[in-house]
Write a structure and sequence with these properties.
With 650 residues, the chain is of the alpha/beta class. The chain is built from 22 helices and 16 strands. Helix 9 crosses helix 10. The radius of gyration is 53 Å and the shape is elongated. It binds ligand C2E and magnesium ion (2 copies).
């Protein structure tokens, strides 16, 4: 975090310093050029050679009229021409710098130019020694001017060289500082890069929340341990997860869930110091690897150690949370081809604990693999069950307890398995939910139930069970609408039964879907009320029409003295909230008596009838109509047994 705060300024500083260094290099080249030009300047040369040229002109003029001097007018003109040329050069732009640097030089140059211009006509008409003497006299002041100009030129060019050198030295120091700054920035950036790389490497191998090694590290460690076959002892792989962790997240929030995971990892790290590695594989799933000389008893002792860690509750935000865990353990086998085989076996053992009873550990046994393979085949069979028309709906009457007449039927799925016979939904619905097959199966059940209801009188309703997963089905509402329209069923005749596990998901889509279905006119019923994590607030937060009181409350025995009171309280509450009540699982006349006394509106159970085929529903309804025509309102309750599910039989 701190690094990332400095990263941008550092990059900007490096770029700025680099740019400044390049600029300084360019300026130093310019200053060096200035130095060399100051030394080699044409004007300097011209000025410096003006005095000797003047002397030569004077000597030539002086000797012009001496006998045998051999000097002609042309020689004089040549020398004067050279002088004139010098004056032209001093007037050009090249000498501007010199004139700028020294005001005296400007005065001198102008004076010299004027003198030369003045004596030019004399030079042309110099015919006598007297005239030559006059010329020499006129030239004379030029000597001192030329000497002074030479001195001035030398000093200005020396000053210029000195200035350029001073600038160069300054630039050198600035450049040095810049380069040192660049070096420092570069070194800090490299250090930051190395740290970031180290951290990336760490986060690729460690879990951020718990600081435990992650799945990648775990797989590498397992692979390494597996390769080291020669070491004494066998490998023991342990996998465990927290039971019902999702509910902790859903009810207490994700922050509490994260806190729980950290506490678990801390407690377990202390309890498993002998592990080769203890890692968090993801979510609430943890795993450890051990090496042991007696792997089976050792594995069992590890299982017990892990369970012992969960005996004390975890303290989260001031509240104490009791959590259990399920542990699967596998021991390396000479037959294991890869480390993955071992992992899969531990996973199978864990799955078996979850299926069986949570809060326990299980060592892998070959039977578990067989059961797993069987489950796979079963899931495959279920995939084709719909297409092969092996699914069927049975219907169990829901009776109005005031009139004793059939108020409706609950549609209950059955599977005619090719080899296993008629199967209860509790055997295949969990697998359908795991594999998402529940979505097409659920849509089919709604359509089939509406088709059945089309054969019944308009005041007989139909209830269909909805799985939590169906709330993730984008086609759910449309399939309900289509089924109702196709079979001409009034929406109020259809009740969708949901369980509290749907509500515990607590997300907006569940509420939206329920509201949309209700707006369609469909009724919603809360099934198996009182079994889950019932919160009375659900009753006000979600739009229900009815509550189905779970069959566990029907037990009327000294062991359950409070059941009648509980049922009565639920019925009172429902009546106050304007909800209908249905008592499930009424099996005996005593239970029916108890239910009647509580004021419950409807009942369902083997005492009235078992789930039946569509044809039996028609017979039941016809008989009921006949009785109502023949006899006064008292309805005799049928207790005949019609073949139903292979489970749930009384
Ligand atoms: P449920 O919705 O609570 O259905 C009532 C279950 O109790 C049915 O079992 C029914 O046969 C049984 N039952 C009825 N009266 C009595 C009684 O007096 N005593 C006893 N012991 N049991 C009684 P079934 O048909 O095996 O269904 C079990 C569960 O499977 C249902 O519980 C429901 O949750 C689920 N299910 C059934 N059909 C469907 C379906 O189409 N879709 C979904 N998603 N779930 C379904
Ligand atoms: Mg139900
Ligand atoms: Mg129920």
């Amino acid at each position: 975090m701190v690094e990332s705060k400095w990263e941008l300024p550092l990059i900007a500083a490096t770029a700025g310093l680099g740019f400044a260094a390049v600029t300084m290099l360019f300026s130093s080249v310019q200053y060096m050029d200035g130095i060399s030009r100051a030394a080699e300047n044409n004007v300097v040369y011209e000025v410096m050679t003006t005095s000797p040229e003047l002397a030569r002109l004077q000597m030539t003029v002086a000797a012009r009229f001496l006998p045998d001097s051999g000097i002609s007018d042309d020689d004089v003109a040549l020398r004067f021409g050279i002088l004139e040329n010098r004056m032209v050069v001093l007037g050009t732009v090249e000498s501007r710098r010199l004139r700028q640097d020294s005001a005296e030089a400007t005065v001198l140059i102008e004076r010299m130019q004027r003198t030369v211009a003045d004596i030019a006509p004399w030079m042309e008409h110099m015919e006598t020694p007297v005239e030559a003497a006059a010329v020499l006299k006129a030239i004379e002041p030029l000597n001192s001017a030329a000497a002074r100009l030479a001195a001035l030129t030398t000093s200005t060019s020396a000053t210029r060289i000195a200035e350029n050198r001073a600038m160069l030295i300054e630039i050198f120091w600035q450049l040095l500082v810049g380069i040192l700054g660049l070096l420092a920035c570069g070194m800090i950036l490299v250090a930051m890069l190395r740290r970031a790389r180290k951290r990336a490497r760490h986060s690729a191998h460690y879990d951020v929340l718990t600081a435990l090694p992650n799945r990648l590290s775990y797989n590498i460690a397992l692979e390494e341990e597996f390769e080291r076959g020669g070491r004494p002892g066998s490998l023991v792989v342990v996998m465990f997860d927290l039971d019902l962790f999702k509910q902790v997240n859903d009810t207490m929030g994700h922050a509490a869930g994260d806190r729980l995971l950290s506490l678990v990892s801390r407690r377990l790290s202390t309890a498993l110091p002998d592990a080769v590695i203890f890692a968090r594989l993801g979510g609430d799933e943890f795993a450890a690897i051990f090496r042991a000389l007696h792997p089976k008893p050792f594995g069992e002792s590890v299982g017990r150690r892990i369970l012992a860690c969960f005996e004390r509750p975890f303290e989260i935000d001031g509240s104490r949370l009791a959590v259990s865990t399920s542990v699967g353990i596998a021991v390396s086998d000479p037959g294991d081809a890869t480390a993955d085989d071992l992992l899969k076996r531990a996973d199978l053992a864990l799955y078996a604990v979850k299926e069986d009873r949570r809060g326990a550990f299980k060592m892998f046994q070959p039977a578990l693999k067989e059961a797993y393979l069987e489950r796979q085949t079963f899931a495959k069979d279920l995939e084709t069950a719909l297409a092969r028309n092996q699914l069927e709906l049975h219907f169990q009457p829901i009776v109005d307890l005031r009139s004793d007449r059939t108020a409706g039927f609950e549609a209950l799925l059955r599977w005619h398995h090719p080899t296993k016979g008629l199967l209860s939904p509790s055997l295949f619905i969990p697998i359908a939910e795991e594999t998402a097959l529940i979505l097409p199966i659920g849509r089919w059940a709604i359509a089939e139930a509406c088709a059945a209801a089309a054969h019944w009188p308009d005041d007989v309703s139909i209830a269909v069970n909805l799985s939590p997963r169906q709330f993730g089905d984008p086609q759910l509402q449309e399939s309900v609408r289509m089924a109702l329209t196709r079979h001409g069923i009034r929406p109020a005749r259809l009740t969708l039964e949901i369980t509290e596990s749907v509500l515990i998901q607590n997300d907006a889509t569940v509420l939206d879907t329920l509201t949309a279905l209700r707006e369609m006119g469909v009724r919603i019923s809360l099934d198996d009320f009182g079994t889950g994590y019932a919160s009375l607030s659900y009753l006000t937060r979600f739009p229900f029409d009815a509550i189905k009181i779970d069959q566990s409350f029907m037990r009327v025995s000294p062991a359950h003295p409070h059941n009648p009171t509980i049922v009565e309280t639920i019925c009172d509450l429902a009546a106050k909230l304007g909800l209908c009540t249905v008592a499930e699982g009424i099996e005996t006349p005593e239970q029916l008596d108890m239910i009647r006394r509580t004021g419950c509106r409807k009942g369902q159970g083997y005492l009235f009838d078992q789930p039946m085929t569509l044809a039996d529903c028609a017979t039941r309804l016809a008989l009921e109509r006949l009785r109502s025509i023949q006899a006064p309102p008292k309805v005799e309750i049928a207790t005949r047994r019609i073949p139903g599910a292979t489970t749930n039989q009384p």
